[in-house]
Amino acid sequence: MKYQRPKGTTDIIPGETEKWQSIEKKAREIFKRYRYQEIRTPIFENFEVFSRTSGETSDIVTKEMYDFFDKGERHITLRPEGTAGVVRAYVENKLYGPEIQKPFKTFYMGPMFRYERPQAGRLREFHQIGVEAFGVDNPALDVEVMAMAVELLHGFGLKNLKLALNTLGDDESRSRYRKALVDYLEPRAEQLSAESKERLHKNPLRVLDSKEKEDQEIVANAPQILDYLTEEAAVHFETVKNLLEALGISYEIDTNMVRGLDYYNHTIFEIMSDSKAFGGKWTTVCAGGRYNGLVEQLGGPETPGIGFGLGVERLLLVLEAEGIRLPLDNELAVYVVGIGAVTNAETLKLVQSLRNAGFSSERDYLERKPKGQFKSASRLGAQFTLTLGEEELTQGKVNLKEMTSGKEIKVALEDVYTDFEKLIAKLRA
C-alpha cells in the first residue's frame, strides 16, 4: 500500500515552513502594535457553534463541514472558520466582564477544514490568520480593523490591492431590503440557477453572491441595499467612508457583496488582488466585517463585534506570483569544520557552546573530508567557519573565517568559548 496525505491537504516541509513563520511573525508584529492579543481555541467544536452562527443555508453548513458523532455520541465539527469558535470562547470565559478593557481585541492563527473541491489556494485543510474585536459599535473600530488589514498586506510587499466595501445595515434595513429583493427576484425565478432558486426565500441575499452567469445578469439590475438603510445604518456607513478617506485609504463600493456567512451586518469588506496567481482577475485575499448579534446567539450579552480573516495559502500564492521574497529566519551563523577523528569531541563541544551563546551552529556528522565540509558550509549559507585540525587542537588554536569576505584569522580556542562576539569584531577590524 502506498501511503499518501489525504486529498485536499499538504505537507509543509522545511524550506517552506520558514515562509509560514515569516508571515506569522509579521502578523504578530502588526497585531501587537494595534493591541491585539492571541487566542487559541480548539480545532473541533460542537456542531451547533457553527450551524447556529454561520447560517443554515450557507455553503459551509450545507456542503462543506467536516462533522461527525464521537464515541460519546456528541455531534462534533472540525472548525470551518475562526470567528464562531472565538465568540464561543469569549462568552464561555466571560471576556465581556466589567474588568475587561473595551474593545476586547484578539487574534488567532491555525488550520480550518472545509470539504470542497481542492484547487490552488483553496484546500480542505487550510490556514487562517484572523482578528476579532468585541464590545464597541463605533465606526472608527471598523476603520481600524480595515486599516490594520491593509497595513498587514502592504507589510508583505503587496502593492496593487483593492478594498471593496459594502454594508448590510441593521436588522430593519435587512428586513426592508430582503422584501424588495424577493419582490424583484420572484418574477425572474425560473431564470435563476438551481442553487439560487433554493436560496430565493431561505436567504435571498446570497443570490447576489452567486458566481453563475445567469444569476449575475439578473442581479446586475437588482435593488441595492444602500437605498433601504435606516437612518442609523446610513450614518454608520457614511462615517466609515469618511474615516477611511481621512486615513487616505481608497475603497470601492460593491453593493452586491454579501459575504458567505449569515452573521454579518453593517460594514463588510474584502481586500482583493489582481495578481497573476489568479490570472489577473481581482480575487479576495482578506475579508471580514461587523457581526453585531453573534455573541447573543451563543448565549452572551448584547455585544457588537468585528473582524477579518486571511487565508495563508492564498497569500503565499500571491507573494510567489508577484516575485516577493519573504525574510526567512533560517540563517546559519557558524559551521565548525573538524579535520580528523581526534577533533570529534572538541567540535561537538564547540557547536554546543556556540548554540548556548545564541549562535546557530552546525558541524559534520558524515566524516567528510575538509573540502566536503566547506562545501556544506557554503551550501547552508554559513556566515563563519571555525576550522579545527589535530595541529590546532594541540596548540589550543582554531581558524576563524568570514565566508563572504574570505578573511581569516587564527584565534585561541578558549576565546571561542568565552566571547565569540569579540572574535568576530576582531576579524572584521
TrEMBL record:
Its main location: cytoplasm. GO terms for cellular component: cytoplasm. One of its GO terms (molecular function) is histidine-tRNA ligase activity. Its EC number is 6.1.1.21. It catalyses: tRNA(His) + L-histidine + ATP = L-histidyl-tRNA(His) + AMP + diphosphate + H(+). It is found in: Cytoplasm. It holds the Pfam family HGTP_anticodon. GO terms for biological process: histidyl-tRNA aminoacylation. InterPro entries: aa-tRNA-synth_II (IPR006195), aa-tRNA-synth_II/BPL/LPL (IPR045864), Anticodon-bd (IPR004154), Anticodon-bd_dom_sf (IPR036621), His-tRNA-ligase (IPR015807), HisRS-like_core (IPR041715), HisRS/HisZ (IPR004516), HisRS_anticodon (IPR033656). Keywords: Aminoacyl-tRNA synthetase, ATP-binding, Cytoplasm, Ligase, Nucleotide-binding, Protein biosynthesis. It is an enzyme of class 6 (ligase). The keyword Cytoplasm applies. Residues 20-327 form the Aminoacyl-transfer RNA synthetases class-II family profile domain. L-histidine binds at residues 81-83, 114, 128, 132, 259, 263-264. Belongs to the class-II aminoacyl-tRNA synthetase family. Homodimer. This is Histidine--tRNA ligase. It comes from Liquorilactobacillus oeni DSM 19972. The lineage of its organism: Bacteria, Bacillati, Bacillota, Bacilli, Lactobacillales.
